[in-house]
Amino acid sequence: MTAEKEQPVPPRSYLLLILLFSGLKLLLHFLANSNYGLHSDELYYISLGKHLQWGYLDNGPFTPAVAAFIAQINESSTFLYRLLPTIFSAATVCLAGLASWYLGGGRLAIAISCTAMLCSPAYLATGYFLQPVAFEQFFWTAGAFFLLRFFQTQRLFLLLIASASFACGTLNKYSVIVYFVALVAGLLIYNRKDFKPAAIWAVIAAGLLIIPNLMWQINNDLPFLRYLTVLKEKTVEPNAGEFLLQQLLAHGSGLAVWSAGLISLLFWPALRRYRFLAFATLLIIAFFTISGGKIYYTLGAFPLLFAAGSVCWEKLLCKAPRFWTYNLFCLHLLPVLVALPAIIPVLPLHHMFGYFKAVAPYTAHTALLEWPDGNKHDLPAFYADMLGWPELSAQVDSAYKTLNQTQKNDMMIVTDGYAVTAALSHFKKPDLPAVHTCDNSITQWSAADPESGNVLLITCKSQADVSRLARKTLLLNTFTQPHAIGHGTKTYLLIRPLPAFSDWYKSERKKFVGR
Fold first, then answer.
1. Which of 129, 37, 59, 134 is nearest to 440 (CA)?
2. Cβ distance 258 to 309 under 8 Å?
3. Is 33 helix (H, G, I), strand (E, B) or coil?
4. Hey, how many other C-beta atoms are within 10 angstroms of the C-beta on 282?
5. Which of 32-36, 85-89, 363-367, 400-404 is predicted least confidently?
6. Rounded mean pLDDT of the chain?
7. What is the 8-class DSSP label of residue 370?
8. Is pTM, for the whole model, over 0.85?
9. What is the DSSP string of 68-114?
10. Which residues pair with 285 in a beta bridge?
């Protein structure tokens, strides 16, 4: 197939419309980004950013590098830490709008795709956190978008940009490799004649970007594969039916748009030449359904489906009364306006309690207010995870200051979870000793073997369990903030730890580092 006739840049009015929606995305998150504190996952990546390297057990270096960059500007600003993820999320909306145009849509198609993206609960809830998800969605979308443009124009520099997007995505989160392989498979099945022999060089050139990370993985005995095994053991993942249901409901009323896009790419003659996009989406959904995945693993594949669906809906609505067009937009806007406080923290905390008290009777069959402990609370767990970390850190610091110098000598601070470790690393006072853990990537710079001195252990374990780890244990304090996820965290002083403590620490650490 020869290159299609070059499509011009969208008219200025169309570009302004796309920028308007992207600006609304920014504004919406800017209003909410500073209402609560940093989430434990954000604190985790900030902690990784203090130890920059070419790889980590669970992800590439991109997000930790972003965290390190922001920390150089202002390490105490929640808004700044969330600024780049929010910008990348708005850029994803922009790419969806542009894709609508390049798939043959007009002003209405752009408005439909961007509105669906803007109102998607999944994109709203993940579009501002300093974690790989927002960046992942952008790199997946950018890779697919420029691959689409290469398919349309046969210009190799577009394939180079697409490959570079996937390479950057790999440096962020390895799951992008699954989408890349799925897209290539779709192109080889449906559009094999569109590749020139020189195209492979564009892919190889962009692939050079991931060599440092690949070498790091090889030099460290492929820790990512070991981490996947640990993750399988620690995480309760949805079964195949639950996962597929989550995929259907993740975007709320946007289901009407992306499902139309999927069907149109497969069967509508005007879009069938782009069916490799639909094939890739179905393939990765099948992959994560079989292998086990979380709802956000596939989010990067949907923006191009929104774009295709918007073209289909524009075709259907162009001759229909405006009443039906208005109904489609109301279908997107009204539900998300009602549910918005449950998706992003737009309300101050004291108003949020009232909101969830009002909606609690309508969430009886959802896990919205259910925490990992299996109980229902006044706030969703992801909001509770943005509360209390500075106070918990201050309480640990206060407990440390109550100790005499003899107790402090050769002291080691240990936690059994990355969340508390990351919080202490970010909020602790300068005179507090380094914090060690046997959990997640932070194990890479934690002690390989506990020292023989006293230990300050921060954990949710009961005193009966902890008493088995030392000759003498003292409970120094318990963190009590019922609306915080860290509620109930205890600070113990272990005097003359027993071999059982070292055995526990090393066995937990070995799961992640293999030694």
1. 59
2. yes
3. coil
4. 15
5. 363-367
6. 90
7. B
8. yes
9. HHHHHHHTT-HHHHTHHHHHHHHHHHHHHHHHHHHTT--HHHHHHHH
10. none
